[in-house]
Amino acid sequence: MDLQSLQSVAPPGQFPEPERSGVYRAIRQRRDIREFRDDPIDETTLARLIQAAHHGPSVGFMQPWDFIVVRDMERRRQVKALFERERQAAACFYDEPRRSAYLALKLEGILESPVNLCVTCDPTRAEVVLGRNSMPETDVYSTCCAVQNLWLAARSEGIGVGWVSILKLPQLRQILGIPHHIVPVAYLCMGHPRDFPEEPLLQTAGWRQRLPLEQLVHFDDWDNTAGGDSWPELQDALYTCTIQRS
Amino acid sequence: MDLQSLQSVAPPGQFPEPERSGVYRAIRQRRDIREFRDDPIDETTLARLIQAAHHGPSVGFMQPWDFIVVRDMERRRQVKALFERERQAAACFYDEPRRSAYLALKLEGILESPVNLCVTCDPTRAEVVLGRNSMPETDVYSTCCAVQNLWLAARSEGIGVGWVSILKLPQLRQILGIPHHIVPVAYLCMGHPRDFPEEPLLQTAGWRQRLPLEQLVHFDDWDNTAGGDSWPELQDALYTCTIQRS
Question: What does R_g of chain A's alpha carbons equal in angstroms?
Fold first, then answer.
């Protein structure tokens, strides 16, 4: 096989190897970070991460997102107090020993991280949004995809991101002056992490395990999880495929 | 400056250059694809893309997603008919000449693409989900992040992905046999694209333009978009930063 035919095997838009594996490495090594060093994020890097989010996909090219960069300690103390109240309330839903295990987990780095970032969604950004008529919720879906862009780009920069979802929206709006019609989608803590753990904290802590992928794949119809005669290759591949571990 | 001190400048978790730029390239060059070649996706690649989605972040490590791989043409014809009906209905919300412009856009590749993938969210996957008490919607948020993982990994493989949101959920559930309590989050068309356009189709078609990033960033409080004395560096960086264009 000559070089010409070897090259024709790779799809034309495929990235060359170090770039392609960089994407999978970011996906594999991204973690929800809750322990931060206190040195700041370089401002150019922070701007680049927000730019990465801004290049997320959006329904009808709506770009419904806004970004509130929060460094002010007084506002962050208020967010932390809100988190603490919600965390205590959530603990009531667990019985012992799960409750103590829950309360022992470190779940955020609101005050320790050098910067917080609230990513919001404005459902009113455009009057009629192409593609949003049948599924209005695609505006917040777009915003989530933007967050994931930022999260993966941050991983490639060695920057840790932790998503704090133990917050109530009305109070969060009040602390950051967000209008009622704007949806705060993600409240993120960002900074240089103490480390990037190999596996998710909740897996290491024995809280939950990663589900076997082959249990989650259906073939043509929800009820067909067995695959069958026409799906052997994909089924084999699902059992054996791994994305880069380290 | 010796090598030691040079190395100490880069954050410890930062990827080496070709890998880091691969992540930004995927973010910059990802497109919503609607025109496909008809050759199939290699099954190992498809499995790897689903695996990439499965490594998305999820609230409380809930992993609420399922994946329905749809190759059956009869079901896809039904999805296409559903899309057509919704597309016509959505056209009613535009006046001319916008209406004709809308109807002239190619918005999906349901039948031409070699495979469709429906990514769903199961809100009942775990009884009490850590971190989901205050914001129950974080289950679908997690699923969207998983979709974005798949989308970026696909771009690095030269595989195109198009998200079809012009569908109604009850009918889609019926076509694919999805139980009522499961939320179909994304219906994706996947395959080798005719090309990866440089800019989003809706931008090229003059439908909407990319918003200037600096309009979307707020400082400590929603009402502070001007920044001010304590934010000059970040503001400068927001104006000037770009992520790789090609």
Answer: 21
